[in-house]
TrEMBL record:
Highest taxon above the source species: Bacteria
Pfam families for this protein: His_Phos_1
Species assigned in the record: Clostridium rhizosphaerae
Name of the protein described by the UniProt record: Histidine phosphatase family protein
């Protein structure tokens, strides 16, 4: 089986360098609704089926790069994040994002979804994809940076091999074979 992973296209949304907690949470909300900037990636001829996050940026990407069967799933959405403290003063966006991911790893109460639940939903959809498709099939997954990072780790545990990444590039294909 071959599984291709694609992170959605770059999101067309400006962000401030420094944000309060309220501004960070609004940015996360706006990011989920924002349009994307397409690139030239097209993968039609090789893949038999595409599984895609239900968030608009992923759906737009999937419909742009692939014109076959697309199955959307809430189980492929991005790992949700929120401000981990209610600061009224501004701190850098990168601090919000990095500490937010650590808060998720540590199951901090500030995060909308606990790590164990996130990993369960991702593992569940990955098992479904593997079980429902022929072992010789080529399956495409369009999702988000955090989710794809966890998917690649799970694929390796299931015996797949492919080029790893820390943060998947927007609109780039990563291939895993078993």
């Amino acid at each position: 089986m071959r599984i291709g992973l694609v992170r959605h296209f770059k999101v067309d949304l400006k962000r401030k360098r420094f944000m309060t907690a309220e501004e960070f949470n609004k940015h996360v909300y706006d990011y989920d609704k924002a349009a994307v900037i397409a690139n030239e990636l097209v993968v039609d001829e090789y893949w038999e089926k595409c599984y895609c996050s239900s968030l608009p940026r992923a759906i737009t990407t999937a419909k742009t790069i692939y014109h076959g069967e697309i199955i959307t799933s809430n189980k492929l959405i991005e790992i949700p994040t929120a401000a981990w403290a209610n600061f009224k003063f501004k701190i850098p966006y990168q601090v919000w994002a990095i500490v937010g991911r650590f808060a998720w790893i540590r199951n901090h109460v500030s995060q909308p979804e606990k790590r164990i639940k996130t990993l369960e939903r991702i593992n569940d959809i990955l098992n479904t994809i593997i079980e429902e498709n022929d072992p010789k099939s080529n399956i495409l997954i369009v999702s988000h940076a955090g989710t794809l990072y966890e998917i690649q780790k799970m694929l390796r545990k299931k015996g797949f091999k492919g080029r790893g990444f820390i943060k998947a590039s927007n609109g780039k294909l990563y291939i895993y074979d078993k």
